[in-house]
């Protein structure tokens, strides 16, 4: 029945505890238990009290092999199973292979001295067993004490391992949180860069539209100048016709000189005055044309300067974008390098712990065989551990120096970015001031032109009406340009405020990163302290073990001396008894009768 039950439990995944106390299991049951321990992965507690498993050596050996292959069982109760020293040896071999059992109860069996020694030797390789009960097994007290010390050592080791695992888990969580924060910061920076690009594109479009408007205004002024030239040509033609008329009148006057000399002289003087007035008018018109051409040239030069300044601003913006992309890429690379360094330090720390554990296991194995050689090897290994600790300290110092250099570089980059932003703001403000000055000068010149044109229009009413209309249009355009300049100034102010806010946010993010780096440094210092404490505890434990080994050797010597002394005393007593018996036999009447015969 037990065989069928255990065969069904081999594939079960829900049963966690199994109690088979007092079922008189034999060889078949022990073999079925060994098979169960090989195949089942869910049972954590197994109670086999009062089953006499130790009486069946083959079945118990099969059970021990299954226990050695199992890596899930945590508690095993084998009380009152008549396990002798051979069964204890099989259990010791199984415990060397097992890496999950934490509690083993072997009370009230027949393990004895040899079995106790076998179990004590297996504890040097088993580091998971926390509790081993050996009461009622005729095991000497020194072996029981050694077993208790080994159990205490295993408990301390497991607590230290659990603490280190918890700390590593906490550190990994913190590293992941730092990664998330850095990714968020990078995404925020990319969003701000995209927004700035959109704003720059908008400003470029607005500037292009305004330049096109200015070009249209220049084209209109060119058309006005062409119309004025055409009017001047018309006036010149009119003057030529008037000259021809005057020449004809002169011929007529020459023909009628004799009749009206006085009238001819008067007409001649009037014609000369008219000629002078026409020449004055022509000179004024030529001067106006030269002034208008100079103004056109000045306006063209101003437009060219504005285009050049727009190109320079676009180049500066492109350089700022490139600097921002370079700084973000450098920050990413530095974050990745810091994370890789942290992972490398964790791996090295784990490897050093594993090396220390393997070295300690080897030392314990060799201490039981060759005590003198183990002392020398222990000294060499202590030196190696000190060298490893020194190397770790050097690596930590290098990491600290690298972190300090990175922080200094980041601060220098921040200072450079701030200085560049300030210079750009100053340049933009100066550029805007120059634009305003030029616009005011152009406005003053346009007003002067309007005044001159009004004076010219006073001479001719038709021309005056057209010029007044043109002056009104120019005033409206000047007002529109002033409004555009005011809107530009407001936009520039808003852009400057946005840049200041973004710089403040970046400074806050950098300060948060600085605080996180300081927290990591504090954690690294705490880890260094823990390493120092662990190394000191390890040394103290080694010294305590050496002292205990020397005490055990002295006790063994004392016990050997006591045993030799007791043997000598027993030999003396035996000789005394033999002599007394011989004397009694010789002195008794039976002895005398025998001698007489």
TrEMBL record:
Segments forming a coiled coil: 211-245, 289-569
Keyword tags: Coiled coil, Cytoplasm, Cytoskeleton
SUPFAM superfamilies: RNI-like
Compartment(s) where it occurs, according to its Swiss-Prot or TrEMBL record: Cytoplasm, Cytoskeleton, Microtubule organizing center, Centrosome
GO cellular component: centrosome; plasma membrane
Principal subcellular localisation of the protein: cytoplasm
Domain of life: Eukaryota
Protein name per its UniProtKB record: Leucine-rich repeat-containing protein 45
UniProt source species: Aptenodytes forsteri (Emperor penguin)
